[in-house]
Each structure stands twice: as structure tokens, then as C-alpha cells.
Amino acid sequence: MATPSKQVKSTTDIGDNRRTETRIQVRIPKDLHEEPVISRLVSHYGVTVMIAAAQVSTNALEYSCFDLQLRGTTSQIESALTYLDELDLEILHQSTPEEDGW
pTM, whole model, 2 decimals? Predict the structure, then answer.
């Protein structure tokens, strides 16, 4: 006789699994140019990153500026933005849900 399988209820909030996107403009200082900041957004936080525009500085005293579109779940994007904040990167602009059409 087959035994009924146990159903495990997820403790994750349903809003955390909703797919969304946001656009940001971020400045990456020259001292972090050797760090894989953008690729970590993909590999560590699972977001899809589209680089809409970039201004990379060749001057050692400058920074590089990136316009990024981040796609993923709400929790993935929040974690990715927390990572950027922990690096103390300057986020010049972040789109609102109204700008993104949500």
C-alpha cells in the first residue's frame, strides 16, 4: 500500500517569488575595477543583468558608471542591491515600479 507523501509548506513569502525588474545607475570606483562586481550579481544572487550603457574611465582617479537592468525575483533583486550597498557603491538612480510598468 502506498503511503501518502508529506507536503512541505514553503515558508517563503509568495511576494518574494514574483518576477520583477528594476533599473539602476551605479558608480564603481577605480579601486573596484578588478573586482567582478557585475558578474557576482548573476552568479551569487541569481539576477539577470543587462548592461544598457556604460562609461568606463581610463583615469586612475575616476570611477565607471553603469546603467543596469536587473531581472529576478523580488528577494533576488533586494539581495543584489544589498550587496552593492555593502560595497558602498553609489547608486545614482533606481527606477520605481511605475517607471518599470509594474
Answer: 0.74
